[in-house]
Design brief:
alpha+beta; two-stranded antiparallel ribbon; 16 helices; 6 strands; 8% strand; globular
């Protein structure tokens, strides 16, 4: 929710010096750990109460341009890079800005640390670079990722250190049934049962599940809403590529029907406005107002996997490592016996290749091009 003039925290006093060297450590850390959106009034425009509110609103919109988790990750990336620069006697915003050779050395340090720290994976290094590029862009600079000091170093890191991605196991229909069977029949159990069944049937990310509202525009932090109809539920979601609708049909039995589970949760929790999935009281008998964190979905999956017979032939630590919030999404992609394009639409993928990455147990040799070619 946007800050109002009444509850807005006081702005820090401006330093009397513009020199980087004149800044103390607290001031530098505050600047470097900011949200990366240094939006302010142009220097030639006089400030006013109205313009100050517009600046705050503009900052809110800038922060909303990317997901909250992405903003946090980018802020952490910038903070880490800033500290690395200070340790080596430089500043991330000193000329030339951005300093491509310096960034190339930073990427090298991430891949082959000289201080005994563990090396980062290629995907994490690429994410760090994306975070730097985004933060520089918010500050009015352009980071050229094709610069030879960056591109060639990154290409070498990929060639030497790249590994196939580690994927979490998919949760199938039988697994979901076994997991929901471990849940109690109190209010908390109704909620968690609806989360598992809706997450599986919709192929949702855990962040999408907890971001749902009952109605459109119920809350400022909602990213979608649910409309229950006779034949099923329509979930309208705000994704990376815009708004999309996900159809969730009713199941073959009330016991495993995601829509029925959702209806029961909303009815007994007496929820008709605001977030769909909220916290409950300690005794599990009363729904509270606070929206659940997406971490609850991950914990729920791991807890119910352990309580059920899902891969019970493996040690506990192995079972915990095999499954995560993405396991529900991968489960739908792997288990639904329908044309691939329907799965692609349900998951909101822009390409069939992305959908195939989620299909853990698909028939890879259903089309045999060797025989089709005459061999």
């Amino acid at each position: 929710m946007s800050e109002t003039p009444e509850n807005r925290p006081p702005k820090p006093e401006k330093s009397t010096s513009t020199s980087h060297d004149a800044m103390n450590d607290d001031e530098r850390n505050e600047r470097e750990s900011s949200d990366g959106n240094p939006i302010a009034l142009p220097s030639h425009v006089a400030g006013s109460g109205t313009l100050d509110r517009l600046v705050e609103n503009a900052r809110d919109y800038a922060r909303a341009s990317t997901a909250e988790n992405t903003n946090k990750a980018y802020a952490a990336d910038w903070k880490h890079f800033s500290r690395w620069c200070r340790r080596h006697g430089t500043d991330p915003l000193s000329a030339p800005c951005p300093d491509a050779p310096l960034i190339g050395l930073y990427l090298t340090e991430l891949a082959a640390p000289t201080n005994g720290a563990p090396a980062l994976s290629v995907s994490t290094i690429e994410r760090r670079l994306s975070g730097l590029a985004w933060t520089y862009a918010q500050r009015g600079f352009t980071l050229d990722r094709k610069n030879r000091h960056i591109a060639t170093v990154l290409a070498g890191i990929k060639r030497k250190h790249a590994r196939p991605p580690v994927q979490k196991d998919a949760i199938g229909a039988d697994d979901v049934k076994a997991m929901t069977a471990t849940l109690p029949h109190d209010l908390r159990g109704l909620r968690d049962r609806a989360i598992l069944l809706m997450g599986y049937a919709g192929g949702f990310r855990r962040s999408e599940i907890v971001a749902l509202d009952v109605n459109r525009d119920d809350t400022d932090d909602g990213r979608g809403w649910v409309t229950v109809q006779d034949q099923g539920a329509i979930v309208t979601l705000q994704g990376k590529t815009g708004w999309r609708e996900v159809e969730i049909g009713r199941g073959s039995t009330d016991l495993t029907c995601p829509v029925r589970a959702l209806e029961q949760w909303l009815h007994f929790a007496k929820i008709n406005f605001g977030p769909v999935f909220v916290r409950t009281s300690r005794d599990g008998k009363r729904a509270l107002e606070n929206r659940l964190s997406d971490k609850h979905v991950a914990r729920l999956i791991k807890t119910t996997v352990l309580k059920s017979n899902v891969r019970s032939d493996l040690p506990k630590a192995k079972r915990l490592a095999m499954f995560s919030g993405h396991s529900l999404r991968a489960g739908l992609a792997s288990s639904a016996e329908v044309d691939e394009r329907y799965v692609q639409k349900q998951l909101g993928h822009t390409s069939a290749e992305m959908t195939r990455r989620y299909q853990r147990r698909r028939d890879r040799f259903r089309v045999n091009l060797t025989k089709a070619a005459g061999l």
